[in-house]
Design goal:
about 475 residues; Immunoglobulin-like; 3 domains; 7 helices; binds CU-O-CU linkage; binds copper (II) ion
């Protein structure tokens, strides 16, 4: 108990002021976890010692921002103060919380001006691996380092030796180690988004991760990149996937030891460190044509923690998700179109049919059901009857993959290209490949206007978003 409380204080930005807010031993206060978040510019040793520091924007001046950690059933209260020179908000990605706390400017709250404050206060219903990020000029704000992990612990987590969060990102840096200022450029908007040239793990150039032989890790992977899809191949190890996008999934070995993470995607893995003391074993990212070593597991010289892998169950306790009633589902067809090398000739922009050249001039080159969105408080794409099951049938008619994300819900992935999905996993962000069709379903139990968008932040900026109204 004391332990927990201490860790809580340590994670606060201004520990002394915060201590006054949560008196020790106060049972009612213990049910509320309090954090302060202040996005601000800061210098960090992104490229490691000896290299020039990088000026980033980070929550509390760090990247990633503080890891917010609470237990299932705890309430979270975040006192937020904007120390950036521009408006912002915080979105709690993957959390099924009331619409008013969802952090979408003009839709769920006014943007928070420079110097402004806001209190986010909610109780997440699900245990799992989630994260937070701004929802104003995301391509730039998140691209400069504004993001952090949000972990909700199970009542009874599986037994592991270490519970480790890997926040994975990539950065586009100049030779001098500064963030490249090329945000929102037409090439990134119309192609694969802002891909970086340096991969990072927890805000540092990724290279080495120390492990001990025989230990069991729970790895919580979170992809916070603007656009990069990671496919991590755990060469000599056999990761078991226990959750995707924070939601438990039937435990299964990752195919070929490879875990694909689209932007905003998460995966919880159980990893038994089966190597020998002193061994070095790479984790390779091979999603794109050129693979590279994301990092090396480096085994310490310590003797193995145990002789054979820990014999303990790895399945997670269920979250209270409403099961879709497929027999009575409403179907909504969703066509993704546009972009470079696509076949879209025109789309509706601001109420007018607009041809692709003009769309390109206006930086709005992607469309959902024929509409290139230009402002976030658009009329909804569809109104979903509350309490009912809805099936989104997405089809990608573009030359690029799109990680499609719905706020406020987790959906079951039913089928890809008409073929039932193997695990019927719950996701909040589903990667839809070029020419692919994906069907997902969920119960619309949470009222409000919810954003639905591509999580390649440049695609969102260039029109690939919409709102779904649940009423
Ligand atoms: Cu990570 Cu609109 O979300
Ligand atoms: Cu979200
Ligand atoms: Cu996209």
């Amino acid at each position: 108990m004391t332990q927990l409380t201490r860790r809580h204080f340590a994670s606060l930005c201004a520990a002394s002021a915060a201590a006054a807010l949560v008196p020790l031993g106060d049972a009612a206060a213990a049910a509320v976890k309090r954090y302060r978040l202040r996005p601000q510019p800061a210098l960090v040793p992104l490229l490691g010692p000896g290299a020039p520091e990088t000026r980033i924007w980070g929550y509390n001046g760090r990247v990633p921002g503080p890891e917010i950690r609470l237990r299932r059933g705890q309430r979270l209260r975040v006192e937020f103060e904007n120390r950036l020179g521009q408006e912002t908000t915080v979105h709690w990605h993957g959390l099924r919380i009331p619409n008013a706390m969802d952090g979408v400017p003009y839709v769920t709250q006014p943007p928070i001006p420079p110097g402004g404050r806001f209190v986010y206060d909610f109780e997440p219903p699900d245990a799992g691996t989630f994260w937070y990020h701004p929802h104003v000029r995301g391509a730039e704000q998140q691209g400069r380092g504004l993001y952090g992990a949000l972990i909700v612990e199970e009542y009874e987590p599986p037994r592991v030796d270490r519970d480790v969060t890997w926040v994975i990102d990539d950065w586009r840096l100049t030779d001098g180690g500064a963030i490249h200022e090329s945000f929102f450029n037409p090439m990134d908007l119309s192609h694969a988004g802002r891909l970086g040239n340096v991969a990072s793990l927890n805000g540092r150039d990724s290279s080495v991760f120390q492990v001990r032989a025989g230990e069991r890790l729970r790895l919580r992977l979170i992809n916070t990149a603007n656009a990069r899809i990671f496919a991590l191949r755990f060469e000599d190890h056999r990761p078991v996937v226990i959750a995707l996008d924070g939601q438990p999934v039937r435990p299964h070995e990752a195919e070929d030891g490879r875990v694909v993470l689209p932007p905003a995607g998460r995966a919880d893995l159980i990893l038994d460190m089966a190597g020998k003391p002193g061994q070095v074993s790479p984790v390779v990212d091979d999603y794109y044509r050129f693979s590279y070593t994301f990092l090396d597991f480096v085994y310490t010289s310590a003797p193995p923690l145990r002789d054979s892998p820990l014999d303990a169950p790895v399945a997670l306790e269920a979250n209270p998700l409403p099961e879709p009633d497929l027999a009575n589902a409403r179907r909504h067809d969703i066509l993704l179109a546009g972009g470079a090398m696509g076949s879209m000739g025109s789309a509706i922009l601001n109420g007018a049919e607009t041809d692709i050249r003009e769309l390109a001039r206006r930086g709005k080159v992607w469309a959902i059901n024929g509409v290139a969105s230009h402002r976030i408080d658009m009329p909804p794409l569809a109104t979903l009857e509350r309490g009912r099951t809805h099936l989104l049938a997405m089809r990608n008619d573009t030359a690029f993959p799109h990680p499609m994300h719905l706020h406020g819900f987790a959906f079951r992935v039913l089928a890809r290209n008409g073929k039932p999905s193997r695990y019927r996993e719950w996701l909040d962000t589903v990667l839809v490949d070029p020419e692919e069709s994906v069907e997902v379903a969920f119960v619309a139990d949470n009222p409000g206007d919810w954003l639905f968008h591509c999580h390649v932040l440049e695609h969102m900026a260039a029109g690939m978003f919409a709102t779904l109204r649940v009423a």
